[in-house]
Structure formats: C-alpha cells, structure tokens
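Researcher: I'm preparing a figure for a lab meeting and need a structural model of a single chain. I don't have an experimental structure, so a prediction will have to do for now. The sequence is pasted below. Please return the structure as tokens so I can convert it later.
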Amino acid sequence: MKAPDPFDGTQAHNLRGFIQSCQLIFHNDPENFLSDRKKALYSTYILTGRAGKWIEPYFPNITSEEPSYILNNWMLFETQLFTPFGNPNEVRKDEQELENFRIKETGHVSLYISDFRSLMSRIGDWGKGITFMFIEEAWNQDCWTSWLLTHESLMASKNSWTSLWN
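Model: Understood. Here is the structure written out token by token.
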C-alpha cells in the first residue's frame, strides 16, 4: 500500500484525505501500528511545509511517555492537526448538505445510499436515529420500486435497512 501524499497545511480540504489515508495504512498493517505513538510518529514523517513546522516544537519532548502528549495520543494528534489546518466551516457545510439531502428524481437508490454513507462518515456518528429518518424519507419515494425489485432478499422487513449503513 502506498504511503499517503504529504500534507503541507496549505489546503484544508486535503486534511481529511490525509488522515483517512493514514488510517488505511494503520488498518492495513496493524502489527506495525499497535500504539497511538507509532501512528502519530508515522504521520509526522509525512507532514511538510507549514504542517511540518507546526509539529517541530513537539520533537524535543519525543521521549515523553505521558498519555496526554500529542505524539502519544492519536486522537489528540488528529484533533490538534485539525485545529490550525482544518476547515472550521467543513462540519457545518456537511450538516447543511445532510439537511438538504434527497434522492434526485432521476437518481438511483444505490447512489443515494453511497452518498449518504460518505456524508455520514464526514459528519461522524449522529446515532441510529438520523439513519432511520433518511431510510423513512427515502422509503416513501417512488424511486425505490426498481431497486427493491432487484434486491428482494434485503427486503424482509423495513428494519433490515440498517444493514446497509452498518
């Protein structure tokens, strides 16, 4: 698996892709990334430009074993990286997109599901309630008919729809 493209901190829209690429590397090679420390240190190696300069002040304490130290805590590292380099309006933009999310008249249900899952992965876990709300809304639209005919085995009950998002 190829290493993630370097992140230089100049384009906020690239940060999420950088983090996701790092996470794919971690999941693909779990033996080498057992600890948060290994994940954070690997990621710092790929930071360049402004982002590389941002992490430099943490290196003098690289031997610290404190769990709250940024290079020992992947979630803290990720959060701290988003603070200066992420788009502060990204979450709100995604929330607005979700609020207006509908199946287009000429759209396919499979595309709706794919787009919905992608959007939910960007927003985070809003719980099962939001998923059921969108299933209910989509269920009531005529465009499901053709999809249902080709996926009858999934339609034992309306509740089986949750398997599409899990």
